[in-house]
Design brief:
2 domains, 5-stranded antiparallel sheet, alpha+beta, 8 strands
């Protein structure tokens, strides 16, 4: 008899649980998510004065190497989610907050871009509504576009 395992995630309030079920109807809660790693993102923020002085040059530098490093991701809070923008601004300071994945941080170090990282957050702590500033957009399903 072949058994198949289906793993799903349930999020209730701020608690997460992972459930496993098999075709024969057995279910259970897993102690931790299978093969899940909380991917850390480093946080950097800039004031409008820093932006006027060219602080966003790192975006251009990282965009130039996307062909060699397609795993680079830099996010910012969606400009349409004012509450979320305020929350991250209060938490990290500055006017604009960016979240860089590990690949982006490695390339910033390699290119000596000298960004001042303010902290680190997990994938789960990223803003729900976010904008891809540098990187390829993630496919979330639907029909492929040409």
């Amino acid at each position: 008899m072949v058994r198949s395992l289906v793993v799903s995630r349930s999020r209730v309030a701020s608690r997460q649980a992972w459930y496993a079920s098999s075709l024969d109807g057995a279910t259970g809660v897993l102690a931790r998510p299978p093969l899940a790693r909380a991917m850390p993102f480093r946080v950097v923020s800039f004031t409008m004065a820093q932006v006027r002085q060219g602080a966003l040059g790192f975006q251009r530098e990282l965009s130039a190497i996307l062909r060699e490093r397609p795993d680079i991701k830099v996010y910012s809070v969606s400009p349409f989610d004012l509450d979320e923008r305020r929350r991250f601004k209060d938490r990290f300071g500055g006017d604009i907050v960016y979240f860089l994945n590990d690949a982006a941080c490695q390339e910033c170090e390699r290119m000596n871009l000298n960004l001042q990282f303010l902290g680190q957050i997990s994938n789960d702590e990223l803003p729900r509504r976010r904008t891809v500033v540098v990187g390829m957009p993630e496919r979330t399903g639907g029909a492929p576009t040409v």
